[in-house]
């Protein structure tokens, strides 16, 4: 059996740039705006929206809409909850509610309360199902 050969260390090459630093720089170029710029005025009154409020677009995005508002209007062609919109746009809930407040004031979207299902089924319906099963 041969003994392992030892190698002398040579001068080290300079370390490659930090991969995390490069990723941070790329992230900064992708989304340079701060959330308060997107969300608009913090002093303004916000609509009373919660996570399960359904939002439906009433119109196509106007030319004056910001990119975030246009994305909201395109997503809301079918009813979506505020939580879903926040997840799809990768924006915090507070920023999405600020954007939706502006769209609600302009009449471009409609907010609907979530559909609440009855907790107890109608007695007549249950009796009809029971009689139908007995006839089988």
Automatic annotation (TrEMBL):
Residues 1-11 have a biased composition (Basic residues). Residues 1-33 are annotated as: Disordered. InterPro entries: DUF742, WH-like_DNA-bd_sf, WH_DNA-bd_sf. Pfam families: DUF742. Coiled coil: none annotated. PANTHER family: DUF742 DOMAIN-CONTAINING PROTEIN. This is DUF742 domain-containing protein.
